[in-house]
Amino acid sequence: MKYIEKFQYITHDIPNLSHLEQAQLACEAGAKWIQYRCLSKTDEQLLQDINAIAEICDDWGTTLIVTNHVHLNGKADIQGFHIEDMEADFIALRKLVGNDITLGGSANTLENLIRLAKEGADYAGFGPYAETETKPNDYLALGLKGYQQAVSELHEKSINLPVLAVGGIKIYDVEALMQTGMYGIAVSGAINFADDFIEAYQDFYTSVKESAVN
């Protein structure tokens, strides 16, 4: 079973910090897992970013995951991909990237989670928990009840898939979210827009680790 970090940080297109700067700050804060999420650049620009971020991650021993862009596999030091398309064929993706690459997927229903597990995804980002400006969508917020129900159903079906809560999560949500049985949490905006990036990251990391029940 692959290593899946319980607290995952996601970079984002924001005006005041480049993806590279976000990754550097996250690593300085102690990040174990960075998901590079950039949907606005050309392949050449993406690879320039990814190669620079990969060097930082290598220096800090941090896992680098890239959102989508599976066609870049093998062109940079990427440990895995997170696929946001909820209709994506993970059996085909696994054949494409091989067994060593980590593959995660986005889900917003129990059915999505079950399919990801059956098709061999290594983990799932399940959300949104609440309203989020990082990834605007029309999906209903799951709230604590949605996570509790999903964890219960997966347990009943003996499905062992690491599921991380994502979408609009604030520091004061962490303890209750982790108590639902979530494997972990993924965060972007609450750290990127904090007054002190490093302090915000470390507060989340500590809270997730202390609140974990599995």
What do you see in this structure?
The protein has eight helices and eight strands; from the N terminus they run βαβαββαβαβαβαβαα. α1 (19-29) runs parallel beside α2 (43-60). It has helices at 19-29, 43-60, 90-97, 110-118, 143-156, 174-179, 189-192, 197-211; strands at 7-10, 33-36, 63-67, 80-83, 102-107, 123-126, 163-166, 184-187. Helix content is 40%, strand content 16%. The radius of gyration is 16 Å and the shape is globular. It is α/β, with parallel strands linked by helices and 214 residues long. The model has no long low-confidence stretch (mean pLDDT 95). It has a single domain (7-211), classed as TIM Barrel. Strands 1-2-3-4-5-6-7-8 form an eight-stranded parallel β-barrel, surrounded by five helices.
Features:
about 210 residues, alpha/beta, TIM Barrel, about 15% strand
